[in-house]
Design brief:
Elements lengths: L3 H11 L3 H27 L5 H23 L4 H4 L18 E2 L40 E6 L10 E2 L4 E2 L3 E3 L2 E5 L5 E3 H4 L4 E6 L10 E6 L6 H6 L4 H7 L4 E6 L18 H16 L6 H5 L3 E6 L3 H10 L6 E7 L6 H10 L4 E6 L4 H13 L17 E5 L18 H10 L20
Parallel strand pairs: 1-2, 9-10, 9-11, 11-12, 12-13, 13-14
Antiparallel strand pairs: 2-8, 3-4, 5-6, 6-7, 8-10
Length: about 450
Amino acid sequence: MFGAVPRLRADTRADRTPSGRHGRALPLGLISALVPLSLTLAQCGRAPDPATLAANSQANVQVVAKTNARVASGDTFEDRFPAPQFRERFPSASESFLQRQMSDFSPKRAVQQPPQPEQAPYKVASLEPQVPYRRPPREDLTTLVSMKSSAFPYFGNNPASEAPFLNISKGDRRGHRSYSGRVYWQDETYSDSRVLVHVPEHFDVRKPGVIVVFFHGNGATLERDVRDRQLVPRQITDSGANAVLLAPQMAVDAADSSAGKFWQPGGFKRFMAESADHLARITGDPNSARAFANMPIVIVGYSGGFLPTAWSLEVGGISDRVRGVVLLDAVYGEMDKFASWIESHRSGFFVSSYTRYTARRDRELMGMLREKGIGVSEDIDGPLRPGSVVFVETGDGITHRDYVTRAWTRDPLKDVLVKMSATPSLALTRVAATNPSASSR
């Protein structure tokens, strides 16, 4: 605009007529009006002060530096034991379900709605019948959840020897030499903190129910063995019982029965407390954590799962919540712990089914119980009742490897839950007496 003024003045010097002076007045008036406006517009479009940008940038650097310092100095469980990657055992391309975190089940933040008109401080009576509550429909949910209180990682002592559990090292690696002399490394065998969680589609937390805790045997993984080969989640669903499943990963694919954190006093109690929060979020009702935290427990130990089962009963801290114990060809030792729990918890039931491999120890345990005056049955026909103690020997045609799916009957875990459901005093509701989907699975 300032460059236009000299040309305008040159034009006015060339025009000396009165009409030219009159024509000159209009452009001069426009100039006087537009110059202040142009200055204002130039000020509004000016780039931010470089000094201001530098100050803000420096403040951001300081904030980031302070934040990083706090993170670096942290000593949280996640910092010390980051979640391991198990690509060799569970390839991401073929893994059929993903590991879940607590945040996956957190309620989504609702979009803010405009304010609603204030409600009247009274209720209007309605002649229309009220629709009864119905649980939102959903399908079976089977997932993996990482839990801090699961069996591993474990850096404590082995109570059998009072020596550190990780009793061998090679450079930066630490490992455990098992009773057989074989070395298993912590980063490969004892670092999986995941738990297989299964919630049947018919489960209703508002009704009496039970939490089944399954301790798998040696040489197992949660997906390949507990879910796909032993069919534990399917048996829970097909029983129709109002039950959910927790199956912690023990030693990964190893001939080792180590109990990890379940060796520790109160370890099983901490595991169940953390599980209650996870189950509440998974089922979609965070307020149901209290119901899960008080729900009866049935512990099932298969094969090498006898060790975490025995220690959970002995020092777990919540043996009174355990309503039943089921051992599937699993009495390899710790008979005193099982006998002590049976003697002091006559409101629960105990079932041990066995092959010739564990027959000697099962008979020894039966003798211990009879000496204490506790009746023992060797027939599992009929419902389970409070105080039932049952030992069942299976024939030579039954193999140890397939025992979770074929023992005294097919799907023995399902059979136990059905028999338990038939006894109201055991406080377990069978909410799916006829499950049409069971036969199709």
